[in-house]
Every structure is written in structure tokens, then in C-alpha cells.
Amino acid sequence: MPLDNPKSDFSKWYSEILLRGNIIDVRTPIKGANVILPNGYEIWEKVKEILNKEFKATNHQNAYFPLFIPEEFLTRESEHFDGFVPEVAWVTKVGDTELKEKFALRPTSETIMYHMYAQWIKSHGDLPLKINQWANIIRMDTKETRPLLRDREFQWSEAHTCHSSAEEAKLQVEESMKIYEALFDALGLSYLTLRRPPHDTFPGADYSIAYDSILPDGRALQIGTTHNLGQSFAKVFDIKFQDVDGSTKLVHQTCYGVSTRVLAALIALHGDDQGLILPPSVAPLQVAIVPIVFKGKSEGVIEACKTLEEEVKRAGYKVHADTRDNYTAGWKFAEYEMKGTPIRLEIGPRDLKNNSVLLVRRDTGEKIPVNRDELFTELKKHMDEIQAGLKKKADEILDGFIVDIDDFEKLKTRMQNERGFARVNWCGDVACAENIKDQMSSEIRGTREDVKEEPTGPCVVCGNKGVQRVYVAQAY
RNA sequence: GAGUCGAUAGUGAAGCUUGGUAUCAUGCGUGCUUCGGGAGCAUGUGAUCAUGGGUUCAAAUCCCAUUCGACUCACCA
Questions:
Q1: What is the distance between the alpha carbons of residues A174 and A254, in angstroms, rounded to a whole number?
Q2: Angle between helix A261-270 and A10-20 (nearest 10)
Q3: How far is the CA of A45 from the C1' of B59 (A)?
Q4: Nucleotide nearest to A257 (CA to C1')
Q5: Domains, chain A, ranges and CATH?
Q6: Taking a C-beta distance cutoff of 8 angstroms, is the pair A196, A209 a contact?
Q7: Confidence check: pLDDT of A1 > 70
Q8: What is the pLDDT of residue A458?
Q9: What are the backbone angles phi and psi of residue A433, rounded to the nearest 5°?
Q10: Over 80: is that where the pLDDT of A82 sits?
Q11: Cα separation of A28 and A17, whole Å?
Q12: Distance measured from the CA of protein residue A389 to the C1' of nucleotide B38, in angstroms
């Protein structure tokens, strides 16, 4: 059966497609802690593969740090601690014994990692230090959980770097932006690179860059962040090095991460009423081969499928010939569409006679008869088109959600109805930002970091001189 | 943290007002016929009706408590 809920009813569509598309099963006994199903997990593994490749190419190393964090670590950087308190889960008891000092289950790993960094870094020769960790993260306070969008336990990548100068740290921030651009391109995601306003930076950081995508219901989704931490953590965790001139200095730090939220964006931006649509670059299965058999006319069809499977595999694609006879061809079509497989190849008696296969594209639904001799040229061509087409469509969705607004009431109406991103002028006053938050449950997401944008008029809230062009949106 | 609603096979629902053998669809198993867009028929399988207590000859149904969940608002680096 197709999805019961159309994409136009996004909330229900999203819940349904997660299970039907074999991405997430929420029927666990723990709210907000779900099963990542094989199809979903393979996509996540692909995300890891892409990022690991980028990390290796830029001299990052992978490592793993403890899940447990002593309470005292979290309290050391008080701003950092206050930012996380409401959502930290604590281990207070082991067996029947109450612990003297309780452990937090990491809501993020700065403290435990920097405690180690302080012991590792002695000299300028130890810098830069660039370490990434793949880990699970625990954030409990959220009563309103949504699979992949807001979980109590989720998977992520967090990279933490140390440098000898502020200038180098700034360059590192830029490098991270390039790394994420490569990832988001592979996923076909569109997004805005925004510098968060000062009142919304990561606790303890100098400034934060965030990558905001948009979901079909018009809400912004942060799919990654980069923080320039400056020296605040270095100060409290005492991360120092001896420089070439013999003096002792504090390191400059950055950190950046992406989580399984990127899967949510992937699903929401590309999927349709038939199910998932996956870009070839991350699809667990790229080509599904379905035999068309009739009673008395099926000789050679199954064999032809298996031969074709071998050939397609040798050409470098992830392929499966589905020769099961307990499902009809139509059922299989629908099934691979639900799972998002980019291309389906059909072979029946007609194709055997004509030396052809029927190529069907998941993104457009086009059915294209292809001569066997031209199959691989065609496969390559359509894979490339699908990859580029999905990105283009995502860009159009994002563009469609961006509007310029210069009137407070209009902004309010917009945020309460279509939502999306509103580009407005802002005076920089936190009171005005609060005003927006209070009156339309939306927030100032920041200024563009990838392109320079100048204010074009007075502040949309107070009418004083606008000093920044900012984007307002309701967020997940 | 505030409010509203809810919990019945794997999934989705009906039954509750008026107490009495739990119904339907889908899924799953088996057999036959099928197969160029989620096949048809037959026959099986699967629910101590969220938990605990109360009323009653009798509770999915009425009462009380608890737990969990959904949604809206607040919060969400």
C-alpha cells in the first residue's frame, strides 16, 4: 500500500515514512530512544564514510572518549553547564551504593575531551590537534521528542580542534564549512550558513556558525554547527602549550558536529507520497532489478536478471535482483519506491526478445526502454541526473521559503502561517529579538556567513537603525 | 513546567452511552490460480482489551488510582 498520509500532511507523513521506509522504529519502551533500522543505518554509515574521508583528507583523527562525565567537569565552565543542566541524565547509584560524585551521561563531550587534551598538549609541535569522535549523545529534558529531529539518545560526529593562534582557529572554522558542504552536497540538502546572534551562541563559545535547512512544513532545521570556542575552555581546562619563543600560551579551539538529524532533512526534503527518494550517493541500494514473469512465458527471465545483476555489480553499483516468487512485480515496484531506490530495472519476456531492459527512475517516475548495449551509459547518465535533480529541487524548496519582510505585523502573520525564513533588518538589540520570540514563537537564526548581506532599512521590530540583515524562522 | 486528548492482535480501527461469546481491515502461515503498477479465492495464525484496585452473578464497557503515550504552549547550546 502507498503511504496513508500524503506529504502535504507533513507530521503524519513523516511518522509513517520512517517505519515504512525502514528508517526508524519508535516502538521501543523508551520515549525518544529509538531503533535505527537497517535501511536508515546504512544511510548513516554512508554519512560516516563521506565525513571520514573528508576528515582524513584534512588531517583529522578519529578517537573515542568515555560516555561518563564527572559532575565537576560540567560545572567548571559555568555558562556551558547552565546551558545543558535541564537535559542532563545522571548516574547517581551503582548497585545499592549511592555515588559520592555522580556521573553525567554526556550531553556533549567538550569537558571530557579537553581534560585529556590538557594532558596531551605540551608544545607548539603538538598543534594543531584535530580529533573527531563518533558517539551517542544523551539529552533528556525534551518532553516533545520526534524521531531523528529531537531524540533523547542520538548518534553524532563531534570534532574538537586546538590551535596555536586565533587566526588558525578561524581558518579551521572555514575548513569545517567546506567539509560539511561536501557532505550536504552528497545528501542533496539545501541550507543556509548562518552566524548565530550573540545571544544564541553555544554556551562558552565566541561565535557559532549553523547550517539551517528547511522542512516542508516551513520550520527551520539545524543540520550542523561549527563553534569558534576561543580560549574560554582552554582557560578552565588549562590547555596550554609552550610556543617557539618559549612563552606559555592558551590554545585556541573550535568544535563542530552533525547528527542523525541530517537523515531527517534527507527524508523530508526528497521524499514524496510514494515513499523515500534517496540520492544515489548515499542510497544503500542503487539499482533494483525486478523480473516480470508470466505463466508459461518466463523461461530465461530469472537467469537474465541474475546475469544483469552481475554486470551491474561489476560496473560498480549497489544492486539487487529480486527474484522472489512470493511477491508480484507490482508489489516489488511499490516496495523499492518506498525504500527510495534511485533506479529500477525491469526485465520481462518482451525485453528478452528485444534485447532491452526497462529503466525506471524513482525521482521522476519516467519509464525508459533501454537497449542492453547502451545500458551502462544510460545508467550513469540517469544516476547523475537524479543526484543533481534532487539537489536542484531542494534548492527550489529552500528558495521558495525565503521572503523579505520589513513590517512587524507582516512578519508575525508570515511566521504563524507559511513560516519559512523571513529576511529582515535588525538593530542588534536583544530586546527586539526577544520580542520576535515572544510574539511569534520564532527566532532570529542569524546572518549569512557564506554571502555578505547589508541591512536595507530600519529594524523590523523597533524601527531604529538596522545594522544586520538576519533570517527569522520557527525552528525544530 | 501548563493544558487537552488518549491506551483494544504486528499495524490501523470498531465495540464503551445502554455491562453478558471481543468485530473488521491489513499483516503473517498454508494451498491453488496469478504476475508489464501494491492480485484473487480458500483456510489458518495472532488480543489475559496499559497496570493495580473497586462495584457486580457478570467489566474492554461503570468508578478510583497509577503508568505510559499523542498533541498544543513554554523550554530546547
A1: 11
A2: 110
A3: 52
A4: B77
A5: 10-270 (3.30.930.10), 287-382 (3.40.50.800), 402-473 (3.30.110.30)
A6: yes
A7: no
A8: 96
A9: -60, -40
A10: no
A11: 17
A12: 27
Query: A288 pairs with which residues across the strands?
Result: A320, A344
Tens of pLDDT, residue by residue over A412-460, are 989 988 889 999 999 999 999 989 988 888 999 999 999 999 999 999 9
DSSP annotation of A433: H
How confident is the prediction for chain A on average, in pLDDT? Answer: 93
Dig out the grid coordinates for A305 from the structure: 536478471
pLDDT category, A296, cuts 50, 70, 90? low
Cell 502561517 locates to A417
d(CA A43, CA A286) in angstroms, rounded, equals 12
Question: pLDDT for A339-367, tens place per residue?
Answer: 999 999 999 999 999 999 999 999 999 99
pLDDT in tens, A212-243: 999 988 999 999 999 999 999 999 999 999 99
The total of other beta-carbon atoms located within 10 Å of residue A123's CB is 11
Q: Kindly provide the b/e burial profile for residues A436-455, where b requires at least 16 CB atoms within 10 angstroms of the residue's own CB.
A: beeebebbbbbbbbeeeeeb
Neighbours of A328 (CB within 10 A): 12
Identify nearest nucleotide to residue A358 by CA to C1′ distance.
Answer: B36
* Mean pLDDT value across residues A129-142: 91
H or E stretch including A345? Answer: strand A343-347
Q: Could you give the CA distance from residue A198 to residue A210 in angstroms, rounded to a whole number?
A: 13
Number of alpha carbons in the 13 Å side-chain half-sphere of residue A7: 14
Q: What is the pLDDT of residue A428?
A: 93
Residues 6+ apart with CB under 8 A from A251: A117, A121, A127, A162, A163, A164, A231, A234, A239, A240, A241
Question: Do the Cβ atoms of A167 and A254 come closer than 8 Å?
Answer: no
Cell for A22? 525502514
Distance A19 CA to B23 C1' (A): 27
Please give the average per-residue pLDDT across A137-159, as a whole number: 88
Contact A460/A426 with Cβ under 8 angstroms? yes
Q: Residues for chain A: how many in total?
A: 476
Element holding A13 (H helix, E strand)? helix A10-20
Collect all residues with Cβ–Cβ distance below 8 Å to A386 and sequence separation of at least 6.
A279, A280, A342, A343, A361, A362, A363
Q: Which pLDDT belongs to residue A336?
A: 96
In strand B, the nucleotides that come within 7 Å of a protein beta carbon are: 1-2, 10-11, 26, 33-39, 68-77
Radius of gyration of chain A (CA): 25
